[in-house]
Amino acid sequence: MNSPEDKLYIVLISVHGLIRGHNMELGSDADTGGQTKYVVELARALGLHPDVARVDLLTQRVIDPDVSSDYAQPVEALSDNAQIIRLDCCDTEYLPKEQLWDYLDIFSDNALSYIREQNKTPHVIHSHYADAGYVGTRLSSHLSVPLIFTGHSLGRVKRRRLLASGVNRRAIEESYNISRRVNAEEDTLGAAELIITSTSQEIEEQYGLYDYYRPTQMRVIPPGTDLECFHPPYGNEYESQIYETLKRFFSDPEKPIILALSRPDQRKNIHTLVEAYGESEKLQAIANLVIVAGNRDDISDMEEGAQEVLTDLLMTIDLYDLYGKVAYPKHHQPDDVSLLYRITSLSKGVFVNPALTEPFGLTLIEAAASGLPIVATEDGGPRDIIGNCKNGYLIDPLDIEEIASNILSVIQNKKKWAKLVSNGIKGVQKHYSWKAHVDKYIEQLQILFEKNQSKNAGVTRPVLQRREILHHDRAIFSDLDQNLLGDSESLKPFVKILQQNRKCAKFGIATGRRMDSALLEMKRANIPQPDVLITSLGTEIYYAPNLTRDTAWTDHIDYLWRPGIVKRVLADLPGLKIQPRSEQSKFKISYYIDPTIAPSIDEINGLLHQHDLTVNAFISFGSFLDIIPIRASKGFALRWFADQWDIPLENILTAGGSGADEDMMRGNTLAVVVANRHDEELSELLDVERVYFARARFAAGIIEAIDHYDFFGRCTAVPK
What we know:
8-stranded mixed β-sheet; 26 strands; 16% strand
């Protein structure tokens, strides 16, 4: 594009939040965050591209004495070629995005009027988030201009997360207008000719939930990184206050640093990194470990999940006696993050992200730009980042030996370290700078324009048809060890059946294992991540795609639960031996039991009742005794899920493997006992009408039950 007439006029739309080009008030409210920064930086970067003549970023005009008058200014220049245009949306005070839906038609009309006044039709409209998608769909139709969409956050995923936190469907609808949001997203996905995402995983796991899911229209273009903030060390970073804070933890502060930085969330898997360090004498000898897990004053005042993570962190440090080798500062400032990266680089260290799930991995890009090799989970975004930058290694986040060996490989080989650092810096500039983002963006626009020219020349665009609605009205839940592990040949067709029916059926695993142990076994057996993972005998519930913990369930079962007293009461009983700490959790106390000398389960329950302890006790496989809260069990957890997700119990097929699964299989659910579990422990279910005893073993027995119940057809307890 050489002449000014050929250069592009691009309209970006981001309706909600407080948007300005300077001193952005990020975090001032729920609507002014990452998306705000993204659209402003995108507008600036596009304005610098030689093929772009003009960029208008359309947003709401806010006249409210409680916010800066900057947001009432109709026009704000970002550069010579880019500007923010603020349009009237509502006459009331500054409103959150959930309350803007009734005003979006006003905004659309004002946007159309503004564009008409320019005497120049934009080449493309790019909407950000559902509300802007609603507006962009209308403008695109009026102006016959291609529409691009970036969701940032999607309504179906948001609804899942809210349900997991215990908010009921009616409250979600009233507070978040979630149906209007989802419908707007569906319409936008149907109208958009290009959808831009940050990772390939986002395409399948988030956009894949929508009826207008069209992966051929989607392109991964990672957001740019601020290279003025994140860069290799200057050399004076050891003079900083944050380094002084770290030094007080170390016996030998001269060692290279292993840095991990995340919020205190169980999914971030910090404790496994500490275990890997604690188990490796070589790592302890040559490097220090720095764990930056948010800010804290008093752990006991933090929310429960953070308490668990930090308490576990401190206990693991104590277990391995890592004092003098591990730093875990209580506080850090936002500006300290870039310093921490550079300090670690200056020490010839490494950045580690051991998260169980990592959709994007922004910290990995920041670390690479700052001169650090990376060792990261093989899930999600890190695969793309390391694939592009060739600056580190992917690891199984649950394999402590693999974590330690890869960290050692980086730190011990100085030549390799330098090569990985160089690759990372170059890779970020090539793939993850704003210039790289805009170059890929403009390249995709050219491809889009060429397609449209072909269409105008007689190549007809296929008629878009909405997929059959994704309505999950049934579910299959299975035990892990007794049904899905042990026969890989029968597992393969079972997984294929699940994938073929994912539009109508959710898949759940209910296990006595802890989450980390369950994920490790699933990975070894190539079992896909389920939609619902019930762990620790029903005391924990997690939802895909990001293993979101159901915190409402956690609050619900924390009733009359006194684990300390339980342990004291059972401490001297013959035939009981407490299992290792790795098998315990906050709401599960696990013992080995020798039934030849131990009291019976009825006697154990009687003893607990004598001490006013109301709990559930299970014996599994004749060798394991588990004590959990009275409100918890696999069956209770399954019914909680069914109630939250409006799936009738009659449409849930359960496959149990031990006595701990019995309450999951009784009642209105459909159930199957696979042939390898036809033993005394589940023999009481023989005469239960809705329990089918399969002739086939392992997963093949579940397939047999699917056919027996015509599960994906009539779904009935009466066999075909």
